[in-house]
Amino acid sequence: MRIKKSLLAVALGFSLVAGVTQVPTAGAVVEWALTEETVSLGLTGVSPHVERTGNADRLWYPSLAGTIASDCTDAGACASVPVTGRLGSDFTAITLPNGTRRAYFVENSMTPGANTKSVSSAPCLTASCTAVGTSTVAAAELVVSQNVKAWGVPDAVVTPDGKVRLYVVESPTDGNCTEKLASYISNDGITFTKEAGWRLENGISVDPEILRAKTGEWMMVLADGPGCGDRVQKLYTSTSNDGLTWSTPQKISGSDLRRLDPTGYEVSTNVFRVYYATAVAGALGDVTYTIKRGTIAIKQSSAEVAITGGKKKATKTTITCAKGKTTKKVTGVKPKCPRGFKKK
């Protein structure tokens, strides 16, 4: 998919570099870049889910007590939000076409001796989804042993035609970097059917988050598996025309930190606010994961408008001026002909 570039806007108090971009020509590849914020949110954990609520970002993320929630301002100040009951891990939520809210998560079986876990969903009991009702397993294929690693991390999205698609990381074979991304489709957001094939393979298919789901314009941010490449998880972007066939993931972060479990939303055309978990690269044993915030936007190139100090660099032009048979060329930001000369 080729997404049209547009004027990158500064939104929600972001400190972004903005510039005029061009519509790419046929066959051109749009490059994306991650800009990390230095603000400290004071949040530790993995698998966050974010939604814009009023003037703040509401984040759900796991803790020892189950999934909890916090509201974070644009300045990065986060305050706890009360949650009723126990919410499943890898939590995400959507608003269905009929206006009701539903949450999706991974939960362990409550049946004694079952030793299974599943991708399930439940109706939100509040508009803010800080409490959920009785859960339902999304599909029979989405029940596996609790011993299966690198599995689940569901992300649900309402498709342009009003259905619900659920993206799930699966591990069909053991080994390093063998994760694959599957998808399931539903008319009601409760009962799902697995779609044929894989959305992405080769390990770069972990922790999916759909940032945009419009007709002909889909965008995803995701990570690679912990056993891939240099074994330092990194963030990637991928685009699609239909949510089924995705482009080869494009790396947008380095190996200085582990970066995984991204979540986010579009704040203006081609500008996305994202949160993700980070940890020291190469650390062994118990690792503390910190939630960070950043921005994904179209990468500025030397062929685009130059930026200096956040402002557009003045562009000089040359004009030709004439007085009788005498001509002069004048170069400047806003060139003007000398007295007695006229612009040709």
Describe what this molecule looks like in 3D.
With 344 residues, the protein is mainly β. A hairpin with a 6-residue loop joins strand 13 (180-186) and strand 14 (193-194). It has strands at residues 32-36, 49-53, 56-63, 66-72, 78-81, 89-95, 101-108, 116-123, 136-137, 143-145, 152-158, 164-170, 180-186, 193-194, 206-214, 217-223, 235-240, 250-251, 257-268, 271-280, 290-298, 307-308, 311-312, 317-323, 326-332, 342-343. The strands form seven sheets. Strands 6, 7, 8, 9 and 10 form a five-stranded antiparallel beta sheet that branches. The chain starts with 31 loop residues before the first strand and ends with a strand. The chain is built from no helices and 26 strands.
CATH topology of the largest domain, which one? Tachylectin-2, Chain A
CATH hierarchy: architecture of the largest domain: 5 Propeller
State mean pLDDT (0 to 100 scale): 86
Classified by CATH, the class of the largest domain is Mainly Beta
Helix content bin: under 10%
Rounded to the nearest angstrom, the distance between the terminal CA atoms is: 44 Å
Question: Briefly, what is this?
Answer:
The protein is built from no helices and 26 strands. By secondary structure, it is mainly β.
Topology summary:
Blueprint: E1 32-36, E2 49-53, E3 56-63, E4 66-72, E5 78-81, E6 89-95, E7 101-108, E8 116-123, E9 136-137, E10 143-145, E11 152-158, E12 164-170, E13 180-186, E14 193-194, E15 206-214, E16 217-223, E17 235-240, E18 250-251, E19 257-268, E20 271-280, E21 290-298, E22 307-308, E23 311-312, E24 317-323, E25 326-332, E26 342-343
Antiparallel strand pairs: 1-21, 2-3, 3-4, 4-5, 6-7, 7-8, 8-9, 8-10, 11-12, 12-13, 13-14, 15-16, 16-17, 17-18, 19-20, 20-21, 22-23, 24-25, 24-26
